[in-house]
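pasting for the record
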Amino acid sequence: MTNNVYQETETKMQKAIDSLEHEVRKIRTGRAHPNLLDHIMVESYGSKMPLPQVASISVEGARSILVSPWDKSQLSVIEKAIRQSDLGLNPATHGPSIRVPLPSLTEERRKDLVKVAKEVGESGKISIRNVRRAALQEIKALLKDKEISEDEERTAEEKINQLTEKFVARATDILADKIKDLQEVK
């Protein structure tokens, strides 16, 4: 009984960490990275699609990304989508592709991005703690229904709390790495 709860909890906490990593990856550090544009949606053939599904994205130097649409008629639509994204980028069409230069981050912008990263990190930790609370409620319900003993409940709670500590520490590490990356002047 408790093993199922424990495995479910671990899976959900891992999903929270994966989500945190994904969100943190979106925060721009001033260095070119193809994943930076992954969340941009492009209007293509009557529906919205993620940019990687309509173009190849590659890094061209430390401060430039090259976007090459599969269909060249999509150039202006892709350029517009990148320009309107929340990244503050100014793409330029160069022949059959779009060059996206990444401007250097100002000190003020770095501080803003650190605040954003901390908010994202905190919401990741909150997600992990919410998973813990749900798991502990499930354990209490098993005890109430007399499916487990009080000793099993205590052991399960300890295991869930250890798991929570492990995942919160992982979230803290992810956040610390991102903040270090943001504060590094390139």
